[in-house]
Design brief:
The complex is a heterodimer of chains A (158) and B (97).
Chain A lengths: L1 E4 L5 E4 L3 H14 L2 H9 L8 H4 L1 H24 L5 E3 L4 H19 L1 H8 L3 H5 L3 H25 L3
Chain B lengths: L23 E6 L6 H12 L3 H14 L1 E7 L1 H13 L4 E5 L2
Antiparallel strand pairs in B: 1-2, 1-3
Helix pairs in contact in B: 1-2
Classes of the chains: A mainly alpha (158), B alpha+beta (97).
């Protein structure tokens, strides 16, 4: 899989195999239930704020729509045999948001940050992980790379 | 729906408050997922802070685990928290001491 900045200030993801396409499709699978993020953020507020009633539904819809958008963009590109998935500057926030949800969800499930600190610079140890955890580790690294590219070339470019 | 947009997001409807003059802090908490450059960008977009101030606050979050990023009236504070939640940052409110 290659990821390249485009001349119009966006990003192009170029999957090279079915496995690469599948990896992109896993973004939205990894998110799980977007409502969970909205609810966990609401837990930070006191009940007096009525956050659950007035804010959570809007946040949930916002997070859901990010996932729907990304899933549809990947599906459309794959079904139409397009060479890659293009992310324009106008679409970047939706993509970033969906990928961020996936990373937050992976972190909640696997505590990858703690894992990363213990296996840094020791790829051999990564290969010794259970397959499910190892897969989550590499997906998280891929999502992190995509986010960094978006920040560097699209969302906060000088 | 697009990412959080200050012109379209609704303020929460609140119960009448009796202590409207107490300032409230908007507090952003550290988390292991959100990237430093992203947090800086969000502070610039939500509050209109210049790059240096946004970076200083981001580093405070990163090194101290939390940062008071804004202080003021309750309704405005809730508005900012709602925005920051939309950007998926761990954010809460607390009364200013």
């Amino acid at each position: 899989m290659n990821v390249l900045p485009t001349l119009d200030g966006g990003l192009c993801i170029l999957p090279e195999s079915d496995a690469d396409w599948h990896e992109l499709e896993l973004i939205c699978s990894d998110v799980g239930r977007p409502a969970h993020l909205a609810e966990s953020l609401a837990d930070l507020m006191d009940s007096d704020s009525e956050w659950e009633q007035y804010v959570v539904p809007e946040l949930e819809e916002n997070f859901n729509s990010q996932c729907r958008y990304v899933a549809a963009a990947i599906e459309h590109a794959r079904d139409h045999n397009e060479h890659g998935v293009f992310i324009t500057p106008a679409q970047a926030e939706k993509w970033y948001g969906a990928i961020n949800q996936a990373r937050l969800s992976l972190e909640a499930r696997y505590q990858l940050d703690t894992l990363e600190n213990t296996i840094e610079d020791a790829l051999g140890e990564v290969n010794d992980l259970e397959p499910e955890l190892r897969s989550a580790y590499f997906r998280n690294r891929f999502y992190l790379f995509l986010q960094s590219m978006m920040l560097d070339y699209v969302m906060d470019a000088p | 729906m697009p990412a959080p947009n200050p012109t379209t997001r609704k303020k929460p409807k609140l119960k009448p408050k009796t202590q409207t003059d107490v300032p409230w802090n908007v507090v952003v908490l550290d988390d292991p997922v959100n990237l430093q450059a992203y947090v800086t960008m969000v502070f610039k977009r939500v509050f209109g802070y210049p790059q240096q101030r946004a970076e200083t606050l981001m580093m405070e979050v990163h090194t101290q685990g939390r940062s008071i990023v804004w202080t003021g009236g309750r309704e405005k504070a809730e508005f900012y928290v709602q925005q920051l939640h939309g950007w998926q940052l761990q954010t809460k409110m607390e009364k200013s001491s």
